[in-house]
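Hi everyone,

Forwarding the result from last night's run.
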Amino acid sequence: MTPILDQHGLTVAYLHLNIILNTEQDRVLGLVLGNCVYGATDSPVGKFFKDTFRNMRGEIVAELANTTSPLRPSNEPLILQQAWQKLTGVKNHLCTWIEEKKHWSGDEFASFLHYHEDAAVAV
């Protein structure tokens, strides 16, 4: 399990098996599928690459800590069930290209995961 840090170095969530967990590690907040980040909606809210979470504008929202823990959530079966439910709800697999920016977004990680912008869909 790896802490997810905000721009101040504070733990705002955890990444475990590509599952984004809240700080109490008892609820699924989102998923990382490939390099696409899914939160509360069935559409991508951003990208994950170079150990960094970015919004759709390419701004940094959070980074992975350099340390990981071998510990697992105490309720891992429930977490996996929640993650599976979220995964089966993903219908929009179109993850657009973003231009990487060097600056941090003003968005908090939790609000980033709840973000949804109607994107153009290729037909």
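The chain is about 15% helix and 30% strand.

Cheers,
N.
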